[in-house]
Amino acid sequence: MQQQQPTPAPAPALGSAELRRLFALDPDYVATNHGSFGAAPRAVMDARQQKMYDIEANPDYFMKITYDAKLDEALLPVAKLLGLETVADVVFTVNATTGVNAVLRSLKQILKASGRPSPSSKQKILCFSSVYGNVLNGINYTTTNDGFGMINVDIPMPISEADLLDRVNTVIESERAQGSDIVLAIYDMISSVPGVIVPVERLTALFKSRGVLTCIDAAHAIGQVPIDLNVIQADFFVSNLHKWLYVPRGCAVFYVAPRFQGVIHHPVISESKPMNWRREFHWVGTTDVSAYLCTKAALNFRAWIGGEAAIMDYTHRLAVRGGQIVADILGTRVLKGVGPGEETDGDAFYAAMVNVLVPHTETVKQGGDVFMGALQAKMLKEDKVGVAPYKFGGVYWIRLSAQ
Q1: Are 194 and 355 in contact (CB under 8 A)?
Q2: Digit-coded pLDDT (tens) for 204-223
Q3: Where in the chain is the domain with CATH 3.40.640.10?
C-alpha cells in the first residue's frame, strides 16, 4: 500500500505575526524596502542549505553529470509561471541587470541577425527617464564603446497609457524624420523609481509595429503582477526571482526569443559551445547556483500561504492602505494616476510598491540628496526602518514596499 503523505498544516493568515515569523527578518525591523533586495522564508533558506550539502556530497557528480538537468528542473516551474511550456527559451542568471547587459553587449550581433547595417550614432537605443540607474550605465557604456546613439524619453508621472504611447510614437517619428533609426527599446514592466506599472503589452506592440527590438527590464515584475510572455511577445525579458518571488539572492530568469538565441552571449565569456546559449548562461565558470535550485521551495511556500493571485491582491491592498496612512502622517500625497486600461482612481497605477511624497521643506530642499541619504541611514541604524528615497519631478519621494 502506498504511504500517504502528511497533510501540511494550515498556513498562517496573510499579514499575521505568525507568518512574519516564518521569515528570517529581525522582529524589530520594519521591512518596507522589500523591493530592493527581497526576503526569503526560512523554509526556502533551509532548502538552499540542503541543496548546498547535496552538492558538497559529490561536487564532481553534480557539476559533470546532473548540473544541466537540475537547473532545468528548477527552471521549469518558473517558465510555466511566465506562460511557457518548456525551458527552451529561458535561462537563469544572477539578476536583471546581467540580462539587460547581455542584450547590450550582444547588440551588434543581434542587429546583424536582423539584417541591420553596422552600428552608427544614427542607430539609437531608446529608454525612458525612469530607467534603472545601473541599466542606464550599461546603455551609456554601449553607446560610448560600440558606436550607437541613445535617446532618453522624458516620461512625467502620472501618465495615461494613451499619452505614453503617443509620446513614444512621436519620438520614433521625429527620429526617423531626422534620418535616425531606433533599433532597441529598453523599458520596465514595473519601474524601480517611481515604482509604477508600465503598459508593456501595448508598448511592445507599438515598438514591434515600427521595427524596434524590445528588451523588458522586469526586475520587479514576477511575484508582483501576472505575466504571460506569449501575450507580451517581447524579444528579450528578464525578471528577478529574489525580489518578490521569495527565492534567495541572486537569481533571475532571462527570456530570449528563438531567433536571437544563436547570437546572444553572456557578458562574461566562459563556456564556449557553438549555438548552446543556455549552457553559456548556466555555466559561468564555477559559481554557487544553490539559489537557482530553490525555485520549487519558494513557489511551494507561496502556494501554501494562498497562491500567486492571493499574494498579489493582498500586497496591493496593503500598499494602497499603507501608502495613504504614511501620506496622511506626512501631510502629503501618494503618486496616483491612470491605471492600465480604463481610467481609475489611480490605485491601479502601482502594484505592491507605493510612492509617497516627502514634504518639500527647506531642510529637504537645501540638503538634497545628501540629506536624504543621511536620513535613510539614520532610519536604518536607529529606527530599523528600510525605505528607498529618490528624486523625481524636482521633488523627493519615498518608495514603500508592501509584503
Answers
A1: yes
A2: 999 999 999 999 999 999 99
A3: 61-297
Per-residue pLDDT tens for 328-353? 999 999 998 754 444 445 788 899 99
CA distance 213 to 216: 10
In this structure, whether the domain defined by 308-401 belongs to CATH 3.40.109.10 is answered with no
Is residue 233 over pLDDT 50? yes
Max CA distance (Å), the chain: 76
Listed in order, the ranges of the chain carrying CATH 3.90.1150.170 are 308-401
Distance of CA 132 to the CA centre of its chain: 10
Instruction: Kindly report the CATH class assigned to 61-297.
Output: alpha beta
Q: Give 140-184 pLDDT, tens digit per residue.
A: 999 999 999 999 999 988 888 889 999 999 999 999 999 999 999
pLDDT band at 274 (very low <50, low <70, confident <90, very high): low
What does 62-75 look like in DSSP terms, one character per residue? IIIIIHHHHHHHHH
Query: In angstroms, rounded to a whole number, what is the distance separating the alpha carbons of residues 13 and 285?
Result: 43
The amino acid at residue 211 is: G
Residue 348 cell numbers, joined: 491601479
Using pLDDT thresholds of 50, 70 and 90, give the confidence band for residue 39: very high
Question: CA 203 to CA 235: how far, in whole Å?
Answer: 13
**pTM for the predicted model, two decimal places:** 0.94
In this structure, what are the phi and psi dihedrals at residue 231, rounded to the nearest 5 degrees?
A: -85, -45
Q: Which three cell numbers stand for residue 115?
A: 539584417
Q: Residue length, the chain?
A: 403
Q: List the Cα angle 340/96/316 in 5-degree steps.
A: 35
